[in-house]
Amino acid sequence: MRKLTYFIATTVDGFIGAPDGDADFIYDYLDGEFIEHLKAEYPETISTPGRAQLGIADAAPKHFDTVLMGRGTYEPGLKQGLTSPYGHMREQYVVSRSLTEAPDPAVRLIEGDLVGAVRELKARDGLGIWLCGGADLAGQLIDEIDAFVVKTYPVFVGTGMPMSRAGFGARPLELTGFQALGGGQVITSYAVKR
């Protein structure tokens, strides 16, 4: 059974974007050491154009071969003409109620039973499934998430888009990894205790 992992970037105070969802400010907190870490440990989470720029276009996936994103996460790239942001992955899914057809043949839409679709994906063979974002999608899938990898950047913003809109509920986690990088970023990994 494949695992659904919420691999997400956040501020110290737990926000993944500004109140309007824009997360571009996060790029100010990326440095060479952090980029090298992503290239080495999570190359599949770098967009296809980014992989080409970084010289890792052919890097094999280590953790995920499927990406699942909400429409809000997909939209910024789409506005720039990037219809297949993770074309190097086996499968790309966008959850949307408003898109009637996928803008790219390599991207599949999930419109109906989200939990059922995710359970079907988890039952398939392969590497893990990367829940790319955002808050609404994480909230809808909170009971399907098996693990979290949280990249915390050294910035406090005060308000914005939370990591999840799941609603209150204590959900126990087990720390499975911790790494502090020189630029102040911290990467923590957790398994969901069931």
Distance between the termini: 15 Å
Strand % is 25-35%
Percent range for helical residues? 10-25%
**How many distinct beta strands?**
10
What is the arithmetic mean of pLDDT?
95
Broad CATH class: Alpha Beta
> Radius of gyration, Cα only, in angstroms?
16 Å
Which residues sit in consecutive blocks of at least 5 with pLDDT less than 50?
none
H/E order of the elements?
Answer: EEHHEHEEHEHEEEE
CATH architecture: 3-Layer(aba) Sandwich
Largest sheet: 8 strands, mixed
Main structural class: alpha/beta
Number of helices: 5
CATH topology: Dihydrofolate Reductase, subunit A
Q: CATH superfamily membership, which one?
A: Dihydrofolate Reductase, subunit A
As laid out across the biggest beta sheet, the strand order is 5-4-3-6-1-7-10-9
Tally of domains: 1
- The best one-word shape is globular
Structural features:
Dihydrofolate Reductase, subunit A; two-stranded antiparallel ribbon; single chain; 21% helix; 29% strand; eight-stranded mixed β-sheet; alpha/beta; globular; 194 residues
Describe the protein's architecture and organization:
- The chain is an alpha/beta fold and 194 residues long.
- The protein has a single domain (4-192), classed as Dihydrofolate Reductase, subunit A (3-Layer(aba) Sandwich).
- Helix content is 21%, strand content 29%.
- The protein contains 5 helices and 10 strands; from the N terminus they run ββααβαββαβαββββ.
- Helix 3 links the parallel strand 3 and strand 4.
- The protein is globular and about 40 Å long.
- The mean pLDDT is 95.
